[in-house]
Amino acid sequence: YQRRVRGGTPIPLWANADFTELVCIGSIEELEKLSGVRVTDLHRENVDHITIPSKVPGNPPLKRVEEVFDCWFESGSMPYAQLHYPFENKELFEQSFPADFIAEGIDQTRGWFYTLLVLSTALFNKPAFKNLIVNGLVLASDGKKMSKRLKNYPDPQKVVDSYGADALRLYLVNSPVVRAENLRFQEQGVKDVIKDLFLPWFNAYRFFIENARRLDQEGLPAFKPDVSLALKSENIMDKWILAATQSLVKFVRTEMSAYRLYTVLPRLVKFIEQLTNWYVRFNRKRLKGEFTPEDRLAALNTLFEVLFTTIRTMSPFTPFFTEYVYQNLKKVIHEDQRAESVHFLDFPAPREEILNERIEEAVMRMQSVIELGRAARDRAKKPLKYPLKHVTVVHEDPQFIADLSSLKSYILEELNVREMLVAQDKESLVSLKVEPDNEKLGKRLKKDAGKVNQALKQLTTEQIKSFQAKGEIEIAGYVLNSTELRVINEYKGDKSKNEAASDDIVLIVLNLEVDEELINEGYGRVVINRVQKLRKSLHLLVSDPIDVYYEISSKKNKDKCEAFLKSQRKVVESALKVPFLPLSYRPLYFSPIGSSLEELEDAGFALTFYITKSSHLSYNLASLSKRFSESEAIEIQAALFALDYQRLKNESQGGQKIKYTINSKVVELTAGQDFYWSVGDRYLAENS
User: Fold this and answer.
1) CB-based contacts of 180: which residues, under 8 Å, 6+ apart?
2) Model confidence over 24-42: pLDDT tens digits?
């Protein structure tokens, strides 16, 4: 701890030339008492000239030694020096020592950490801190130290300007650097935080705002949060996401209490994925109000409670984004409960009455089945847009089957299958085998890895079940555990008609046989998707009044196409929420705002879609031609087209008749006979 340099804290030792007489000074008062000199500044230029008379008569006075303390000694004295202990603040020091935590870089192992520990051990026989957070070094992407000369790193200010401070903060918090390891900084990593976390999180928030505002647009009372409506909801997905939110709060509190910063982001990313890809997507119709008003408010209040709890939980990690969201959400919060900033609110405590591990487990099982079903479809090259007859879930546990049965509707919709079957006789459909993690076993077993792999192939079903139950098994003299071995459920049934997928827990089997009805239903989903894309490209909102027309654009397979359209028109209309009409029904003044020629590759035919602003009147030309000449019929249509539709409807006789004077001639038209209030009405009347 000592050096011979000009700067630094003087070591308070006064000695004679041969060090046979030595005095250690403990305070300014003691130095004044022994030397007769009072000092207030303890730098060496103010004390080096001070001498202390020797206690041995005739000996020269004692002089201060030349050495000064190493600066790390001063840093290690920080807990005491900052409070001027023991001369002042004794009680305050004893209350706050040792510190709850300290944080510094890995390079301080031989510096600050060491001197803190040495001095506190010498003085109090205990460390100066309860917890220590050590960060590694942030290096350039090439593994070298960041260098202004080499310019081997992006400008930090540009990174913040491009992606935001929150994204950079989370990137670093989730990196090896918070585990005392070095980080090769990659700008792409910061960008990925935006893509994987902030965009989905923002989209969930934006979707809530859009649907809360829709209440006002529909003339309903404005949204006011009422958590009791969320808690009273019987919807299992509401209960699940509320429970998952409280699990997140509990997890963050636990991990932060243990100073494990690096575990928070992976859990948050997973939670946001659950919120956006599962809860919001499964409940879009409820949130938009397509069911009962009570169900709509339950869903909206559930989503509000989840967002509000999440931003409070994550505010220490993402202070700017959470503040942005809070400033908007607080507008609907009662004034008594508002704060100026999210950072002025208490950190949430987990609500035990909302936590529900059973529902979380049930939904997790449902998600496993859905993800396995998607994987099976991918392997079989059966896109989700084409429906299938059934999926079979194979599992021996009645509770597992009961969990899936309670969530059956979601499984059917997500996998686009008509029926879910269950099979508990696992052995008739499944054979068990064990797959090793060759990388792990190779490192541990070296040349014996091959011998162990051969032995694994000889395991019986009973041995594999025993391994599943115990979590370990002895093979060729080695004890292997579940981190090194994976149990595979292999389907033994007819693979020409079925596609199976499994994980360590469950096996699912998709039936791949299709009939004409299923094929047409699949084409219907394709049509819905293509029209929605056209609508989106034209920047149209769902609420915009439009009509959609179609035209068969290929002579090939025309009969097949017409049969498909006849069977799926109502389904398409229900999904689009607008009329879906043959082009032959287009009005006289037909002016599309967008069109798209779409080939239905698997079907072997093509359709052209046209989108127009919703037309007002549609005419029965056969009826008009009986009463008027061709020129008069055209003149009537042109004159009525120029009138305000809503006013025309209001002035009609209960929507039954239109009276209008054209060229001094009174024209009376009857609804359902001469005209229809919309093209859709006309189509329904003529094709019912």
Assistant:
1) 106, 134, 135, 136
2) 998 889 999 999 999 988 8
